[in-house]
Write a structure and sequence with these properties.
single chain; 309 residues; mainly beta; 15-stranded antiparallel β-sheet; globular
Length: 309
Amino acid sequence: MGVTVLPSRSSALLLVLAVALAGLGAAGCSTADAKRDAEVEPSGLGKEVTVPISASITTLVQPGAEPRSVLHPAYDTDQTQQVTLRTDHHIEQQLNDQAVRDFSPPAVTIPLTAQVSRDGVDLTLGTATSPDPALAQQLQSADGSHAAFAISDAGAITALRLAPKPATPDAARAALEQAFYQAVYQSIAFPVEPVGEGAIWKVRQRVSSGFPLDQVTTATLTRRDGNLLTIQLEVTQKPISTVWNLPNSAGSLDIVDYLMYGSGTITVDLGLPLPVSGSVTVGGRQVYRDPRTSVSLAQNISTQVQWGN
C-alpha cells in the first residue's frame, strides 16, 4: 500500500472559502450558515463514521528490469506495526487585490499501532500532538481512539472507518479526521502484472474536492530489497468540470485556474499494512470567480504527508 494525500477539500478550507464569499455577498449564504456547514464536513462530528474510497484503475506503463514478480501484499495477522503519521496543511487565500491571508490549520502528528485482521487493518491511536497548544491539549483526550482500513488484494484502501473516543472534543475530532483523509483518500494500488526495479504504473481515481477531480498518480519502483520497496510518486489533479456548485444550494463558482501537482518518495514493506517511511507533498494554485459579482478568490495550497518513527 502506498502513501496517501488528501485531494478532497478540508473543512478548514471550506470554512475560509465560504466565509470569505459570504462576507462579500458572493455566495448567497450567511457567514453563520457557511461556518455551520463547514464544521460538519466531511463526516459530522461526535460519531463513528465509515467512508468509502472511490475505486481506482491501475495501468502498467513499463514492467521494469528482471527479475520480476507480482507485488502482492502478504500481511501477518500476528504482527503489529508502529509508525507515526504527520500531516501539515497550508492555505493562503486572497480575495481580489486584498492582502493575502493565512488560514493554515495546525499540523498534527499521530502515533499509530496497526494490527491486521480478517476485515482489514485496525489502528489504535496514541497521543497525538500539535504545535498549537490548545489543539494539543484537546488531542490528549483522543488517546486510544480507533480507526480502520479495508484494503483490496492489490493494496488499495477501499474504505476508512474513524471512531474517536466519545470524550474527544470536536476540534480534536476534526483534526484527526482531516489527517486521516489527507493520509488515506488516495491509496497506491499495485499492478496485477509482474514488475521489477524501474517499473512504472499509473493509478487513476476520481476524487472529490467539493467538485470532482481526475487524479493520476504515477508510481516508479526505484528499488526493491526483498519485501522492502522504495517508490517514487508523482501526483496530478485536474477538475472534471469548470464550475464548482457550492454545498446547500449556495450558488456556484467558475473554476478559472486549477493546477495541483505533488511528488515524493515512500518506503513500503509488503508484509506491513502502512508505509514504513517517506513523505509526499501536493500543492498548487486555485482561482475561482463568482459569475454574478466577478469577485475573484485565489488560493495557494499545499499538503504534506509524512510517515516514519
